[in-house]
Amino acid sequence: MGERAAVIIETPSATFQMNKILKFRSFQSMEITYRQIAETIMAEYPDITAYIGNEFDRNIEKIYMQYNENDWDFLVRICKDMGIPMASHLNEIVMGNEINLEVYNAQLNNAVYGRGRERENIIFRVRESTDPYNTGERVKITLANQGSRGEEGSDTRIVSKALLKIKDNYVVNDYELIEMSHEFETVNNSGGYIIEGKVMETGGVDGVATMKIDFSHGLEKSAGSKFQAYEDEYAGAYNFPYCTEYSSSNSGMFCTPEKGDVVTVYIPNNNENFSYITGAVNNPGSERFSNPNVRNYTLAGDESAGGVPMFDFQLNSRVFGISVTDNVNMNAKNSMDLGVGSGNFNVNAKGKNEIIEGETVVISQNINQTVSGETVINSVGNTTINSGGFSVVKAGTNVIING
Q1: pLDDT tens digit string along 243-255?
Q2: Whole-structure pTM value
């Protein structure tokens, strides 16, 4: 090779491939496993070899929303939640401890090494080693006087950091090892956002109002045209609590979103299980709530009622029933109309009292009255009976007319 020869070094990077695109995706089913999530992510990278530990075979402990996260950061967040390491080298990714990987014996004769502490974790650091290890690989260290009785002790650890460098024309490696029981801090790079979803079903769990949501619409809307969104494969699998206007005493007069309505879901922190629905939004027909004359309820003061709040309540239903344990009172200042379009108007009661200050007018095709006891009609003025045909008065015994 000449002095001016060019050298091209090809270094494939799994992290570079996986952190280029921000994505929007939902994993809202508590019935899926961590492995299903990892394999779904890695299916888009056929050139990357993924080593997934047996820890991923258990069901997820919380739902996951990949919101404005690239695939690398999303998988790192999941691994940190599980308390397991994740590392990449070239075109390989290693996730977990329970993986059948080759274990190398560390050669420490010509290296400088020691132990340190980061929070509750013990870190084993090696400097200027001639062994070129990569992150994620398993290394066994054997040291004298490390056993419980002063004997030679050994254990297997994971390479968490590795740095190759040239010193005095030799290639040496500085690396750090962590224990299999290393405790990882959770990643708090998610939460504090709102996403829209469509109501699939309303109901409740343990007396709490909940709804099942399809996030496909909201994921696409949040992603826009610059990023990548996915259909909500597990739509409706989780019960999200709804932020009602009702207290535990059931006070309030507000409608809840219905099936097909678009609602907003607030994800307050890194635990998506704490998400809740804040209310309906962007639904056709909701403009009526901006107009006090047509919305379902109003708090506008009625001048004729002395300025007190007035409720304009409209009910459209096939059957409407009212049942109370005591009294029902209906009062109107001007007029009260009661109409039955077809059918009968029935009143059943033990007694009936009518007090009419003005005139009483009854217009009917036929009038039939049956009384099981006495009938008394008192008039302080004149009483006139007009008939276009015959007028018949019948009695079981006598008919007495006093003039």
Answers
A1: 887 667 666 556 6
A2: 0.72
